[in-house]
């Protein structure tokens, strides 16, 4: 009987210690996310809360917004999930509806599922982003859809290897695959620098989509319309955020705060 009671007390003490440790860790996780939001210009959220006892830290950021120089992004929630005993490995789950406000149109981005993973170690950060059945709808009256959008990064020497696949993109009644890959480094002002190889299965429809989202101007559209073949391969050069597409300067990337604390 005495051994039984000692066992019960030991289990109770262990549970109490674990509960205290989880509470301490979850509070620190929640405060870290809230502090990053508070100190980062252009980022806000209505509520930050953490659940997941006993083995997880599941932090939900409700109604996050990121306001950039030329576009704003918002969604209903983003969840930052990790096992409490595994540092540096995160799963991000996004609301299935996201909104992007630009200077001349509102873009609604919907998907069946949108999840990302981030792993950090001594070699750097690796990330992957999978969006199932994305649909982009504009207040200007057009829409585009795809089977999947896949995005990944990993350390590569002094830079970051970048890859993006847009599978079975459909726009203006035409389907196409889009692949973008290369190595990027950080430029003098913190914006990406490097060369990416772009492969497009149907260039006219993809260029029309770039024009629809105002990624290119009418004059740039005319210059980039010179390739007459449907399948195109060209270089995208980034110089501290300035973008050159196939030899045509098309502008600079919008500046947004990093989405991870």
Instruction: Describe the global form.
Output: globular
Number of helices: 3
First and last CA, distance: 51 Å
Q: Would you count the extended β strands for me?
A: 20
Give the number of domains: 2
The secondary structure category is alpha+beta
Oligomeric state of the chains in view: single chain
Strand content: over 45%
Mean pLDDT: 86
Reported for the largest beta sheet, the result is: 20 strands, antiparallel
Poorly predicted regions are none
Order of helical and strand elements: HEEEEEEEEEEEEEEEEEHHEEE
Radius of gyration: 22 Å
Instruction: Name the helicity range.
Output: 10-25%
Describe the structure.
It holds the Pfam family DUF2125. InterPro entries: DUF2125 (IPR018666). This is DUF2125 domain-containing protein. It comes from Psychromarinibacter halotolerans. This protein has a 20-stranded antiparallel β-sheet that branches. With 261 residues, it is an alpha+beta fold. It folds into 2 domains: 1-95, no CATH class; 96-261, no CATH class. The mean pLDDT is 86. It has 3 helices and 20 strands.
Q: How do the helices and strands line up, and which of them pair or pack?
A:
Layout: H1 2-39, E1 43-44, E2 47-51, E3 56-62, E4 65-67, E5 71-75, E6 77-83, E7 89-94, E8 97-102, E9 106-110, E10 113-121, E11 124-132, E12 135-138, E13 143-145, E14 148-156, E15 159-171, E16 174-186, E17 192-200, H2 203-212, H3 218-224, E18 232-239, E19 242-245, E20 248-252
Task: Name some characteristics of this structure.
about 260 residues, globular, 3 helices, single chain, 20-stranded antiparallel sheet
């Amino acid at each position: 009987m005495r051994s039984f009671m000692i066992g019960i007390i030991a289990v109770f003490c262990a549970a109490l210690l674990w509960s205290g440790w989880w509470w301490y860790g979850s509070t620190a996780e929640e405060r870290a996310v809230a502090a990053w939001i508070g100190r980062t210009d252009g980022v806000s959220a209505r509520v930050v809360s953490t659940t997941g006892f006993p083995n997880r830290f599941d932090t939900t950021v409700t109604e996050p917004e990121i306001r950039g120089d030329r576009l704003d992004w918002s969604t209903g929630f983003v969840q930052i999930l990790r096992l409490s005993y595994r540092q540096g490995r995160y799963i991000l789950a996004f609301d299935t509806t996201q909104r992007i406000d630009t200077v001349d149109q509102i873009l609604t981005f919907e998907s069946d599922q949108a999840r990302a993973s981030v792993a950090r170690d001594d070699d750097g950060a690796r990330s992957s982003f999978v969006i199932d059945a994305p649909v982009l709808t504009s207040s200007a009256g057009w829409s585009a859809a795809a089977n999947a959008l896949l995005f990944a990064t990993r350390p590569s020497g002094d830079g970051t290897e970048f890859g993006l696949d847009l599978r079975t993109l459909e726009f203006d009644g035409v389907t196409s695959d889009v692949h973008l890959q290369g190595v990027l480094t950080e430029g003098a002002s913190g914006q990406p620098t490097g060369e990416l190889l772009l492969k497009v299965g149907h260039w006219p429809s993809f260029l029309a989509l770039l024009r629809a989202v105002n990624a290119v101007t009418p004059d740039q559209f005319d210059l980039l319309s010179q390739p007459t073949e449907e399948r195109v391969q060209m270089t995208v050069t980034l110089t501290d955020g300035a973008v050159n597409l196939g030899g045509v300067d098309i502008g600079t990337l919008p500046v947004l705060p990093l989405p991870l604390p």
